[in-house]
Amino acid sequence: MGYLKELVLTECDSLKQNVPCDFVGIALQNRNDPDITWPYAMGNRNEKYKYITVRYGKGIAGKVISSARPMEITDFTKNILGKITDYPIMLAEKLVAAYSVPLVWNGLPRGALLIGYRHARQFDEQEKQKLREVARKLESFLPSHFTEE
Amino acid sequence: MELEAGNQACSYIIQSQEEEIKRVALELHESINQNLYTMQTGLNFIEAGIENQEMKSYAKEMAGLMERTIREVRLLSVELYPNTLSTLGLVSAMKSYSKLFTNTFGILIDVHSSGEEKLLSDQKSMAAFRVCQEALINIAKYADTDHAKIEFTWGEISVRIDIKDAGKGFDANEVMESGRANGIAAMRERLRLVGGQCDLSSELDKGTTVSINLPIQ
């Protein structure tokens, strides 16, 4: 698992520098239940992400996984669905803008890749495409994550 | 006289809301979830009897969805009304809520209690619980810290509860004067209606403490 973590974090670091953005996080469903955690992060301000568990369908990651669609926030806390406390990773990392895409394993969305900024901004098609490409690359690591002890 | 009538009306509205929330929470937990559980058991039974692999896998998927729904409903019920409040008391209910809070926001909470815990009326324990809940939510929203403490100090006639964080703090006077302190005002009002008191102190870059004093009788 240590080697896998190193590989994934290297990808996250490269994404963070290439985009460039303030935060990169990967949320994944647990192996045996639908709850979602954030096992990998880059550019984090604190360790809160390690303790956050979101339910399927809740928070950005939960919504991206349950809908199998990307999600975009351009100016948190304006124009969001629900309460600001429904977005714990945005609060924990003081993110103002974020874009997240699903990570698919075995034909099902089992995770989410998120890039975040600590200032308001719009996301252009080029950035979105870049994130989709990195997501496809990261999906190749998912079998190891979900099967290795 | 008019003020007293206003206070009574306010107290009545809060109490009615809490009773309704409690009713919905219990209904979700004891009626709806029990029915869902029966349906999940039935789906598992049907799945075991199906030989067609495609149908079997579909029935399994449905049973899985039902299991998820049962968990969702149970958590929603606990979020609405913490059952432990009336069964195990305020400290246990806060410990239980703190775990949920840490899982949600990633902020670690230390709950400490000194002195012998006394039995509070439903109204008082609910008011104290809601104020603690509001204080913790404010920490998640504004304090920018990954750690907080809740300290209960039980006396013979009253209990003191301090919710402390070492986050970024704020200028309390400025916030109160600017009218952006509706949450704090609501916490004070809620406690005042049950004979308690709520004080707030905060210092920039040093953190915030919300102190509650509540008579036991």
UniProtKB/TrEMBL annotation, chain A:
Keyword annotations from UniProtKB, A to Z: Kinase, Transferase
GAF domain boundaries: 6-138
Presence of keyword Phosphoprotein: no
Pfam families: GAF
Top-rank taxon, per record: Bacteria
GO molecular function: kinase activity
Keyword Kinase annotated: yes
Gene3D superfamilies from the UniProt entry: 3.30.450.40
Name listed for the protein in its UniProt record: Two-component system, NarL family, sensor histidine kinase NreB/nitrogen regulatory protein A
Species annotation: Thalassobacillus cyri
Automatic annotation (TrEMBL), chain B:
GO BP term, example: phosphorelay signal transduction system
Domain of life according to the entry: Bacteria
Coiled-coil residues: none
The protein's Enzyme Commission number: 2.7.13.3
Every Histidine kinase domain range: 27-217
Any single Pfam family the record assigns to this protein: HATPase_c
Keywords assigned by UniProt, alphabetized: ATP-binding, Kinase, Nucleotide-binding, Transferase, Two-component regulatory system
Gene Ontology MF term list: ATP binding; protein histidine kinase activity
InterPro entries per the UniProt record, alphabetical: HATPase_C_sf (IPR036890), HATPase_dom (IPR003594), His_kinase_dom (IPR005467), Sensor_HK_TwoCompSys (IPR050482), Sig_transdc_His_kin-like_C (IPR004358)
Database matches in PROSITE patterns: HIS_KIN
Enzyme class: transferase
The reaction(s) this protein catalyses: ATP + protein L-histidine = ADP + protein N-phospho-L-histidine
Protein name: histidine kinase
Species assigned in the record: Thalassobacillus cyri
